[in-house]
TrEMBL record:
Its main location: nucleus. One of its GO terms (biological process) is error-free translesion synthesis. PANTHER family: DNA REPAIR PROTEIN REV1. PROSITE patterns: UMUC. This is DNA repair protein REV1. Residues 1-175 form the UmuC domain. The lineage of its organism: Eukaryota, Sar, Stramenopiles, Oomycota, Peronosporomycetes. Keywords: DNA damage, DNA repair, DNA synthesis, DNA-binding, Magnesium, Metal-binding, Nucleotidyltransferase, Nucleus, Transferase. The keyword Hydrolase does not apply. Belongs to the DNA polymerase type-Y family. Pfam families: IMS, IMS_C, IMS_HHH_1. InterPro entries: DNA/RNA_pol_sf, DNA_pol_Y-fam_lit_finger_sf, DNA_pol_Y-fam_little_finger, IMS_HHH_1, Rev_trsase/Diguanyl_cyclase, UmuC. The keyword Cytoplasm does not apply.
Length: 678
């Protein structure tokens, strides 16, 4: 947008269209700073950041308008509504600037004209549009298009000529220090920069910056559009750079504690916690005046920062304040030399997601599979007393399920998570109370299930054994889907707040079942097995032949990071399993179990691969994989049966990925980004 703050302020005031206008806090205070000004004011030397006194000397007829933050926010939303109505591929840069991507064959100039017209009709503000085939050229073209115009760089030949017309300072990343290094090499313009080899640039200014400027000078930019920033903010800050004048160390610590309290308040409002605290300091530069030209301003300063990474995310104001005070102590600056203080929180984690909670939710759906044991169905009627034969059968089933020798009294050697709660619920009341008392538990009270309420899955902390006695269920079968949905969405009762995964022992896990699990779930089991705190009071049996974590073999295994398969290879395996699965027009019930397992395993593997990207917070990669699978599912659908299998499989993957994103980012992928198959 052109002079965005000014454009919003002058809407509906045609008398201000032909006069120099600026937006600032005050038009009378000489030390008030210009935030934005229109092109007529710029033509007279006025610029953003200039003191009002200087601006009035350069332009006596300057009209100063106040900020209109509510209107600015409203107009910004309207602008992005226009953007998303044309394409889902939008990378937000600021409140008035964004990159938009369109498919091949799109007429860039016509699309730019349409966007400009719609933005003006919705907001009354003019927009400038740059059109090109990569992010760098689109950005530079938009600068060329200002004010109120369109500029296009259509092909590489035109890009080469366009780049030669620019200055080095126009390139992103070419700051004052970088330009000084280039000038020391005799490079003063783009043409001289293009004449340098990549090796010369890398040797002179470093590998990353040298390679970037080598490509930028030639109009090359391979960066993809990034939409991750649209999902969740990456930092929260509380910064004060005005009026900082500490007389002693006590003043500084009191202020930092208050700043930590403010940051904590902002984190809680956003429902996030932080794992990294950064202290930002402005210190009066050596030789700078003690009192700057702007009253109580920071003046000429040197900027410093220091970070502290937490072992666990937090939003506690006391902890944040203590960390900031300790970081300030490490700087060892005189308190009276400080001119600006800020606290920044990064590595944000949503309240609804943490590592342990995340693992519990994923693994819980597998633990409470209703195929292993019936869920507890509560009723308003009292339970029927079992007959003697039923009692014997249930006791025999308990003995088989738990692997307990009933002739020995060794309840203490069995964790509560090993008990089948379905069996426990149907035992006689006296026996059930004795079992619960032996574990220090209180018998759960029954609740009434009305016709409009869903029955709770469990009423205690109990979970079934990891060892399965039945084949793994097809997660893409409609019945399995409903079970999985209940496992994900059903609320966890207060009595299950203790993390039952801490009771998992690797000795309980059937190795055959373990290695048939998806990669992501096996990782969770491994993590909990390593981090588990012992919950039993029984002394473990020593195992002399088990290598320690520091053995050469385990150290070598830790260094060898697994190579993840590509989504293309995983989809190819899915396609290989499909012709067998849908052959002869058989129904799901008639098909061999192995074929159904192969199909389910292929879809499950694809979901697990995408979920790893979500956990790693690389949403761009997750979105790319989802779009690839969706596109392939559409193009591979050669018959009705195959199309139905692919549609149900992809839609289920999309649902699970959205649930993962909701837990990690408090949001979900928009239908404009990736839509289910219909």
């Amino acid at each position: 947008m052109d002079c965005f703050f000014v454009a919003v302020a002058v809407r509906g005031q045609p008398q201000l269209e032909k006069v120099p206008v600026a937006v600032a806090h005050s038009g009378n205070a000489g030390s008030s700073e210009i935030s934005s000004c229109n092109y007529m004011a710029r033509a007279k030397g006025v610029s953003a950041g200039m003191f009002m006194q200087t601006a009035k000397e350069l332009c006596p007829d300057l009209v100063v308008l106040p900020y209109q933050f509510d209107a600015i926010q409203r107009v910004s939303f309207q602008i992005y509504d226009v953007f998303f109505s044309h394409t889902p591929f939008v990378q937000a840069v600021s409140c008035d600037e964004a990159f938009l991507e369109f498919g091949k064959g799109t007429d860039g100039m016509e699309k730019a004209k349409t966007l400009r017209q719609e933005v003006f009709e919705r907001t009354g503000c003019a927009a400038s549009v740059g059109v090109s085939f990569n992010i760098l050229l689109a950005k530079l073209s938009s600068r060329k298009a200002k004010p109120d115009g369109i500029y296009q760089v259509g092909d590489p030949d035109q890009a080469a000529k366009f780049m030669l017309s620019l200055d080095i300072q126009d390139l992103p990343g070419a700051g004052v220090k970088t330009r000084a290094k280039l000038e020391a090499l005799g490079v003063e313009d783009i043409r001289q920069l293009v004449s340098m080899t990549k090796g010369e640039l890398v040797q002179s200014i470093g590998k990353a910056l040298g390679e970037m400027l080598y490509n930028y000078a030639r109009g090359r930019d391979v960066r993809p559009l990034s939409m991750e920033s649209n999902m969740m903010r990456k930092s929260v800050s509380a910064v004060v750079n005005f009026g900082i004048r500490f007389e002693n160390w006590e003043n500084a610590t009191v202020f930092l504690s208050a700043l930590g309290e403010e940051l904590s308040h902002r984190l809680r409002n956003l429902k996030v916690r932080t794992k990294c605290i950064t202290l930002l300091i402005k210190k009066r530069a050596e030789g700078a005046p003690v009192e700057p030209s702007k009253f109580m301003g920071h003046g000429i300063c040197d900027n410093f920062s220091k970070s502290h990474v937490l072992t666990e995310e937090t939003d506690d104001q006391v902890m944040i304040g203590k960390i900031c005070i300790e970081l300030l102590r490490q700087f060892n600056f005189p308190s009276e030399e400080l001119r600006g203080v800020g606290v920044q929180a990064t590595k944000l984690v949503s309240h609804t997601q943490s590592i342990n909670q995340r693992g519990g939710q994923l693994f819980e759906g597998w633990l409470v599979d209703s195929a292993q044991s019936p869920a507890i169905m509560t009723s308003s009627h009292p339970p029927r007393e079992p007959t003697a034969s039923e009692q014997d059968e249930r006791e025999r089933k308990t003995e088989d399920e738990l692997g307990v020798d009933v002739n020995r009294n060794d309840f203490a050697a069995t964790t509560f998570s090993q008990i089948d709660t379905g069996v426990l619920e149907e035992l006689p009341e006296q026996l059930k109370r004795e079992i619960l008392a032996s574990y220090g538990r209180v018998a759960p009270s029954r609740t009434v299930k009305t016709s409009h309420q869903l029955p709770p899955k469990r009423k205690t902390n109990g979970k079934t054994l990891l060892r399965r006695k039945h084949p793994a269920q097809n997660i893409f079968d409609s019945k399995s889907n409903s079970r999985l949905a209940r496992a994900i969405h059903a609320p966890i009762e207060e009595s299950r707040k203790v993390d039952a995964l801490n009771d998992i022992r690797m000795s309980q896990v059937d190795s055959e079942v373990y290695y048939s699990l998806p990669f992501a779930i096996r990782n969770e089991i491994d993590r909990y097995a390593k981090k588990r705190k012992p919950t039993s009071k029984v002394i473990p049996i020593p195992r002399p032949n088990v290598p320690s974590d520091t053995s050469p073999k385990q150290v070598l295994d830790k260094k060898l990071a697994p190579v993840l398969p590509s989504i293309e290879d995983m989809y190819a395996k899915l396609v290989e399993s499909l012709p067998v699965a849908v052959s002869n027009n058989e129904s799901d019930n008639e098909r061999p179990v192995d074929n159904i397992r192969a199909r389910s395993a292929a879809f499950d593997a694809i979901y697990s691969r995408i979920s790893i990207e979500v956990e790693n917070r690389t949403l761009d990669q997750a979105l790319r994989m989802l779009r690839f699978v969706r596109r392939k599912c559409l193009s591979t659908s050669t018959c009705a049966d195959l199309a139905d299998v692919l549609k149900r499989g992809f839609n289920h993957i999309l649902t699970l990925v959205n649930q993962d994103i909701r837990r990690n980012f408090n949001g979900a992928l928009s239908l404009r980004l990736v839509a289910p198959l219909e």
